[in-house]
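Q: Structure tokens for this one, please.
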Amino acid sequence: MWGTDATRFYTEEDGWCWFFGAIDHCVDELVGWHTAKIGDRWAALEPLRQGVRHVFGEFAKDVARGLRIRCDWGPQYIADAWINEVKWLGMTITPSYVGEPECNGVIERFMRTLKEQCLYLHRFQSLAEARRIIGEFIARYNTEWLIERLGHQTPVAARAAAMAA
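A: Here is the predicted structure, written as tokens:
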């Protein structure tokens, strides 16, 4: 199962911008992410597209058959274009319960970490600068962040161990 969600952050030049992410519940790896000025359904699809290419090696109809996607009820995630592409990829949508964000807890916990360790610590001048800094944080998170529930492994190491088993 993967979780996906979004949050907003501010830049001096571009104003309010969006961050979208998709995380693998099994290994806590952020499999895709995207920053955008406009937080619409197309921006929300980008992390899933990246994740499919990263995990499945291609982007094609039914390539991710059997994968479940946990999301909330935000307007991006109930748009026909988002739903149709997710289904085209073979994924099953499992929305969290309204008013209960803990149902999407893995990505919500990552968003908290992203905010506390990156977004709240920087005064971004532009979306381009934010994209660079956020990208550096995510690379560190996936390759250096030790996750207790994974036996103090990094997300990348946990994926490698799972694939080897």
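A few notes: The radius of gyration is 15 Å. Strands lie at 2-11, 15-24, 30-36, 68-71, 92-95.
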